[in-house]
Design a protein that fits this description.
Layout lengths: L2 H14 L3 E3 L11 E3 L1 H20 L4 E3 L9 H6 L1 H4 L1 E6 L6 E3 H27 L5 H7 L1 H22 L3 H10 L16 E4 L3 E4 L7 E4 L5 H5 L2 H7 L6 E10 L14 E11 L4 H17 L8 E5 L9 E9 L2 E12 L1 H10 L5 E3 L4 E3 L2 E8 H12 E7 L5 E7 L10 E5 L6 H12 L5 E3 L5 H11 L3 E5 L1 H6 L1 E6 L5 E5 L3 H9 L1 H5 L4
Parallel strand pairs: 3-9, 19-20, 19-21
Antiparallel strand pairs: 1-2, 4-5, 4-6, 7-8, 9-10, 10-16, 11-12, 12-13, 13-16, 14-15, 17-18, 21-22, 22-23
Length: about 525
């Protein structure tokens, strides 16, 4: 099945099973804004807990804050967002659709990469175990031809971005013959810049209102609170400040479901270090963060680093962690060495001294910063994309059947345990309720008595529930139940008294954190 078809099924699945809904759907929706349903919010909260605890609990020198969404407008002048927070946009005159010029070119690069990979896949099937991929890539003429096209386009694209040459971006689109996905035409407008910040007014009267912005990132809330946290927490460099919060960007090209939205949530940590040590810390956090992703067990090959060709105005090093989504490798997290730009700018614009007195050196300085920034919504999409599976299984009558299962890491699963009475009589529902009452303070449990036991299993598989417990007549006699494991569909007979320990061992964050050492 084509990856595009799988992604469409995933989006439909997220709605059907209470993960993600289109915002304001009864009013035909609001573009690029989504609501999280009853299962989605649980998964989202579990992802946030995994990040927060791995940052704040596992690092003695990292603390958290929660800053306001509304901030003084001068903050965004100091940070450069008022003048430089732009996307290069281009319109197709025939379809009237608007696109990001850089994204169109990146997709063209991905096409060349896909052509190379297809050649490799065909050769691998043909030659089997004797296939040498490195040698094939270095000698095959079709691969080399596409590699040359990729290299030339990549260099040209990088040069245009670094020079902010909008005319060259349009020329690249024309030279590559990139067409509008809707109209199929190459009738493009010029490329122009578009500021992404939402603005509003704060005040009781129109004349006295102050123009403020919905924050486009959470990082600045950390920077303007640097002194408050450092002094009240008696923090010594190096130390970090973590935050989870909403951010807002007026994305013109918002697509691929929740991958790019206008209202989204970020998990960011700013790590303050002594000038001159920032690149060492940058390398350390780069490895720490990729290990955090890989600990979830989605396959190391599905992650890669993308080193930035064009650095932001504040950075001296930047790398993205990319995950292989159904629509290709895309960024889920950025690690940036931001130098002392942010604190120096706020020191300049506020007129307040924002420095750290280093007792070892006996001098004050503006700290440098290493940032890790991850989108909660992209992380959510990564988790559900990697977990969605369609499997062919044998039904009870011996025929082939397809089950849809969300193989979520048990620690992240929205529902940990479903308890099901075999029939709705003979005291079995009461016994099932008794089990839930005993476990509901430890795990998110669900009671399910509707339909046959097989249909109930399928329903819980589709939600991603790792454990199903069936209460039958034997349970009343010997206090045992059948526990079914989602991924293998195997079943065990266990004592009701042992359920808590069996489940706790599999859904504990401790087990996940042990992989991060």
């Amino acid at each position: 099945m084509a990856q595009e078809d799988i992604f469409k099924k995933l989006v439909a699945h997220c709605k059907e099973y209470g993960y993600v809904f289109q915002s304001s759907e009864i009013y035909d929706g609001l573009g690029a804004v989504y609501d999280y349903g009853q299962n989605g919010v649980e998964l989202k909260n579990n992802i946030k807990k995994y990040w927060w605890d791995s940052m704040v609990l596992l690092h003695e020198n990292v603390v958290g804050i929660d800053s306001a969404i509304f901030m003084h407008p001068t903050i965004w002048k100091a940070s450069g967002h008022v003048d430089a927070f732009n996307d290069p946009l281009i319109d197709n005159k025939d379809s009237k659709k608007r696109y990001r010029a850089d994204v169109l070119i990146e997709e063209q690069l991905a096409k060349y990469e896909e052509k190379m990979n297809k050649e490799v896949e065909k050769a691998a099937k043909k030659f089997g175990d004797s296939f040498d991929e490195a040698q094939f890539r270095a000698t095959n003429q079709r691969v080399l031809a596409n590699r040359e096209k990729w290299d030339q386009l990549h260099q040209r694209f990088s040069d245009a971005l670094n020079a902010s040459d909008l005319a060259e971006l349009k020329q690249i689109i024309e030279d590559e013959g990139i067409v509008c996905p809707i109209s199929g035409s190459r009738n493009w407008t010029d490329v122009r810049q578009f500021n992404l910040m939402f603005s509003t007014e704060m005040g009781s009267t129109a004349d006295g209102a102050l123009k403020v912005y919905l924050r486009p990132e959470t990082a600045q809330g950390i920077f303007v609170n640097y002194l408050n946290v450092q002094k009240t927490g008696r923090m010594k460099i190096p130390f970090g400040i973590a935050q989870i919060g909403k951010a807002f960007r007026n994305e013109i090209v918002a697509r691929q479901f929740i991958f790019r939205m206008r209202e989204f949530e970020q998990m960011e940590m700013q790590f303050f270090v002594k000038p001159g040590t920032e690149l060492e810390w940058f390398d350390l956090w780069r490895e720490t963060r990729i290990k955090w992703h890989r600990a979830l067990g989605f396959g190391d090959d599905n992650y890669r680093f993308h080193v930035h060709e064009k650095l932001a105005h504040y950075a001296n090093a930047a790398v993205d962690v990319e995950f292989k989504f159904p629509f290709g490798f895309k960024e889920v997290e950025g690690i940036h060495s931001r130098t002392d730009f942010d604190l120096s700018q706020h020191q300049k614009y506020s007129g307040k001294k924002i420095q750290y007195f280093d007792p070892e050196l006996g001098e004050s300085y503006v700290p440098y910063v290493v940032e890790t920034s991850i989108g909660v919504d992209r992380m959510f999409l990564q988790v559900v994309s990697a977990s969605y599976h369609e499997e062919e299984v044998e039904s009870s009558n011996g025929q082939k059947d397809t089950r849809v299962v969300m193989k979520l890491p048990p620690v992240l699963a929205p529902v940990k345990l479903a308890v099901m009475p075999l029939v709705k009589k003979d005291g079995l529902p009461e016994k099932a309720r008794e089990i839930i009452d005993d476990l509901k303070f430890d795990f998110n449990c669900q009671y399910d008595e509707k339909d046959s036991i097989g249909k109930r299993y399928r329903r819980q598989d589709a939600i991603g529930t790792p454990f199903c417990v069936t209460v039958d007549h034997q349970s009343l006699e010997d206090q045992t139940v059948t526990i079914r494991y989602r991924d293998t569909m195997e079943q065990d007979r266990v004592a009701i008294a042992d359920l808590k320990n069996i489940i706790a061992d599999e859904v504990s964050f401790k087990k996940l954190f042990a992989k991060l050492k």
